[in-house]
Structure formats: structure tokens, C-alpha cells
N-acetyltransferase domain-containing protein
Amino acid sequence: MEPALIPPKDTTELETAYTFADNILNFDATHPRNLQFYKNVYAKNPEYVLVFKPAGILEGVIFSSDQDTETLLIGELAVSETARGKGIGSKLLLAMEEVARKHGKKEVLLGALGDAENFYIRHGYLPKLFVQVKGNDRLEEIAALSSALVMWKSTGDGYSKVVFDTGKIDKELQNKFEEKLGAHTQFLFSKKIDYPQSNNASSSSVSW
């Protein structure tokens, strides 16, 4: 990890990083991963938050948390407008993948909108369509609109939710769910974490 790309040195710098991201991404007031959420994350795993500060100037941040024991969830990635086009977003993403590898994760997961979708595709992330509609027990109604593989589904608390393995960013399918069911939709992106085999492991697999 290059010297300019490090965890915040303390909670004050963490607060600055969060405000930086908020100013760029315009968090909703009900944003679930708020500052207190990331203070708790930072207290346990400081490197789950990384800042890019060449010459001491904050130009980019990335925040993550544990989705579960095997998956790291990237919540927010933000780069200042004046610093875009320099590969900073890629540096932040690759650095966080290395953090995931260090913590023994098998996968990185995130959600993205608009232009960011193609950014993650270019970095080897695979798209999956998340669909949520109001009302319990509407899973069959959701599944009937697509032949894509259902990877996950859940119903309860007034909502029915399904994740489809679309294999691509299918805007036509996304619009169909929104128009016909009034669904909330978002493409999720996942990437498996590779672990290079050790020399010992490689040697032991060879028969002489």
C-alpha cells in the first residue's frame, strides 16, 4: 500500500473523510452507514477506511465493513472532482481488495449507480440485480418477470426482495421491474478474492 493511501490517523481525520465523502455523494439523511457506524467499524478495523492524501491533501476515500465473515462490503468510494482521471478510484479499490485478502475474505460486494457501474465492471466485478417491492409474499410475482437465475430471496417486514444473476448490466430488465412493480432496484457488484498459492503448496501438488 503506497504511503499516500492509509487509514485515517484518528477519529478526527475519520470525521473529515466522512464529510468529504458526504459532500461528493450527498448522503441521504437516513443513510444507514452514518458517521457513528463507521466510527464503530474504525475502532475494530482501522484499515476498513482508507484515505488518499498525496502531499497531505485529501483527494479520495473508501469505506468498508463486514457484510459477513466471508464478505467485505464496500459502502462508499469518493474522489474529489479536481483529482478525477488520475486513477485514484482504482488505487482505492485495489487497496481495499488487498485489505479484504488480509482479513481472509472470499468476496467483495458493493452497490453502484450510473457511471460507477462500468467502473466496477472494468475492475472485474460481476453485476447482479437487486429488486425490492412493497408487500410480503411477492417473490413469485418478482421472479415471473425474469428468466435470470435467482441467487437470493427474502420476504418479511413488509417487503419482498430478490437478487438475480443477470450476467450483465441489463437496463431493460431493471426498467421492467420499476415500471410493472414499482420496485426499487439497484445493481450489486461482486468479485471473488484470489489467494496466490504458496511455493510449498505448489510443490506438494507435483508428482515426481
User: Anything to note?
Assistant: The first strand starts at residue 5 and ends at 6. The chain has seven helices and nine strands. The chain has two domains: 1-105, 114-194.
